[in-house]
Write a structure and sequence with these properties.
The protein is of the alpha/beta class. Helices cover 40% and strands 17% of the residues. The longest helix is centred in the first third of the chain and has 22 residues, at 91-112. The radius of gyration is 19 Å and the shape is globular. Bound molecules: nicotinamide-adenine-dinucleotide (NAD) and uridine-5'-diphosphate. It is a single-pass type II membrane protein.
């Protein structure tokens, strides 16, 4: 049993991770400023009786003085808006949490001799010119655009991790996470899976941006969460950047058609303008994760979508007495 801190515990990945760690009898403390997270996610965790919630902004220096964090052994640093809709509406908060927030959390790890997992992102590769993306690829990121607040601050977060690993020997591990999905994403999150499933179940237009030929690799949440835990447990991951994602990519139009088919929805698929700097391709090389962690994803997109759809459908029915 370890004393574990999760930043961003009220969010999508953070709450799933907290639930898993609680099941394994860890003492879990979650910090979240609820900027994009949901109190509902936290209530579910508090109900287990083995979770402490601290509503707090980790970019505040005071976070380093919180009594509850003394003796922390593991830090999963997940706090940061992740959906383009949210990080673009919170650019300064996004920059701050990934830079100052990461700095404070690393400082906490240093003081407590804690292990540290940082959730970076496939966005570190920007709009990649090398496909698929290997960890050594340095990326193609635009500093002068609407995605920069996220992409570049995540990259700077990695730099903080590098410095704390090399200067202070903090056992830091950096996960570059590729698109992860499941139920639990907010319906208004704006990310593609939550949008398409919500739209299909509500019989509204399935909104494909551009011509839908851009690709993404979708990893089911259980697979991603398992990888983060393996990174924490495994010393071979110390000082390493590791891609965590599903090595099969789909075009966005293929995903729209698959969601429509699996939900048996009558929604039309409609086409809308492509957001600025939307990456055209994205697919991880996961040989490093296989070698260092013995990890690869197990859940296919079709299985994961079926699980996701079942939960969204039940929630929809609860809320509106609706549908399908
Ligand atoms: P999310 O928006 O659901 O969760 C992020 C959480 O961080 C929210 O609960 C939010 O309130 C909290 N937060 C933001 N700023 C904070 C601050 N200053 N202090 C305290 N809490 C703060 O996002 P998610 O999908 O769960 O992503 C979690 C992490 O994983 C993020 O760091 C994201 O960049 C990374 N990631 C996620 C994906 C994905 O597909 N979900 C892909 C790549 C990387
Ligand atoms: N997308 C789409 N329709 C939507 C939401 C997203 O076609 O309703 C596209 C988006 O333009 C991008 C891909 O789906 O090409 C993934 O978008 P998301 O916001 O989920 O994550 P990203 O990988 O862009 O951060």
């Amino acid at each position: 049993m370890s004393k574990v801190l999760i930043t961003g515990a009220a969010g999508f990945l953070g709450s799933h991770l907290a639930f898993q760690l609680i099941q394994k009898d860890n003492q879990v403390i979650g910090i979240d400023n609820l900027s994009t997270g949901k109190m509902n996610n936290v209530m579910r965790l508090i109900d287990t009786g083995r979770f402490q919630f601290i509503p707090y902004d980790i970019t505040s220096h005071q976070v380093l003085t919180l009594d509850a964090l003394r003796g922390i052994e593991e830090i999963y640093h997940l706090a940061s808006p992740a959906s383009p809709r949210f990080y673009q509406s919170l650019p300064f908060g996004t920059i701050a949490v990934n830079t100052i927030g990461t700095n404070f959390m690393l400082e906490l790890a240093k003081t407590n001799n804690a292990k540290f997992v940082y959730t970076s992102t496939s966005e570190a590769y920007g709009d990649p010119q090398v496909h698929p993306q290997h960890e050594d690829y340095r990326g193609n990121v635009n500093t002068w655009g609407p995605r920069a607040c996220y992409d570049e601050s995540k990259r700077l977060g990695e730099v903080y991790c590098y410095e704390y690993f090399h200067r202070f020997q903090v056992p830091v591990k950096v996960a570059r996470i590729f698109n992860t999905y499941s139920a639990g994403l907010r319906n208004d999150d704006g990310r593609v899976i939550s949008n398409f499933v919500t739209q299909a179940l509500q019989q509204t237009d399935i909104t494909v941006f551009g011509d839908g030929s851009q690709t993404r690799s979708f990893c089911y949440v259980d697979d991603t969460i398992q990888a983060l835990q393996l990174m924490m447990e495994n010393d071979a991951a110390n000082g390493e950047i590791i891609n965590i994602g599903n090595p099969i990519d789909y075009t966005v139009l293929e995903v729209a058609k698959l969601v429509k088919e699996l939900t048996r929805s009558a929604s039309p698929i409609t086409f809308h303008s492509l957001p600025e700097d939307d990456p055209k391709v994205r697919r991880p090389v996961i040989e490093k994760a296989k070698k260092l962690l013995g990890w690869e994803p197990k859940v296919s997109l079709e299985d994961g979508l079926n699980r996701t759809i079942a939960v969204y459908r039940a929630e929809n029915n609860d809320k509106k007495g609706l549908l399908l």
